[in-house]
Amino acid sequence: PITLTTLTNLCWLLATAADPAERDPSKAVELAKRATEIQPERARHWDKLGVALYRNGEFSKAVETLEKARAMCGGQDPKHQFFLAMAYWQVGQRGQALENYAEATAWLESGDCKEKPSQEEQGRFADEAESLIEPNVPTSNTQPKAGNQELSDE
């Protein structure tokens, strides 16, 4: 039988494998949904679902799910904030994206991410977020304010 730990580890691998060819976002979403059904009180299952939704191109749902996971963690979920930043960017909420990106970057640079595999993985996520967000940051202060735009998957 597959344990819940195996289920969530497989979900994470299918959503975040270093080689994009090894990813299967739709299967990752399916596995993460099962985990949230089995243990809906566990924030870590919801954050995995949020990451899987992001990888599956379901950006609005990713924002909602990652925010739910963060709320369940008392507002602190730095390990997944790069994905939250990218999801906000994809739905056009630039202010929220930049805020989450800055917080995630500060967390990574603080050294609080002490486990070597996690450091390498977070570094990959940081690079991905940087390549999405930083080249697109306007040079003027004309960015939309957080919350001014509705969520969409466009």
Give a written overview of the molecule.
36% of the residues are buried. α5 (81-90) packs parallel to α7 (116-133). Residues 139-154 have low confidence and may be disordered. By secondary structure, this protein is an all-alpha fold. The chain has seven helices and no strands. The protein starts with a helix and ends in a 21-residue tail after the last helix.
The number of strands is 0
Taking the sheet with the most strands, its summary is: none
Radius of gyration: 15 Å
Treating each run of at least 4 consecutive H or I residues as one helix, how many helices?
Answer: 7
Query: Which residues sit in consecutive blocks of at least 5 with pLDDT less than 50?
Result: 139-154
Percent of residues in beta strands? under 5%
Question: Helices and strands: which structural class?
Answer: mainly alpha
Order of helices and strands: HHHHHHH
Q: Residue-averaged pLDDT, rounded?
A: 85
Helix amount, in percent? 55-70%
Distance between the termini: 39 Å
Overall shape: it is globular
Provide keyphrases for this structure.
single chain, about 150 residues, mainly alpha, 7 helices, about 65% helix, about 0% strand, globular, disordered C terminus
In short:
The chain is mainly α and 154 residues long. The chain has helices spanning 4-16, 25-38, 43-55, 59-72, 81-90, 94-110, 116-133. The longest helix is centred in the last third of the chain and has 18 residues, at 116-133.
Topology:
Layout: H1 4-16, H2 25-38, H3 43-55, H4 59-72, H5 81-90, H6 94-110, H7 116-133
Helix pairs in contact: 1-2, 1-3, 2-3, 3-4, 4-5, 5-6, 5-7, 6-7
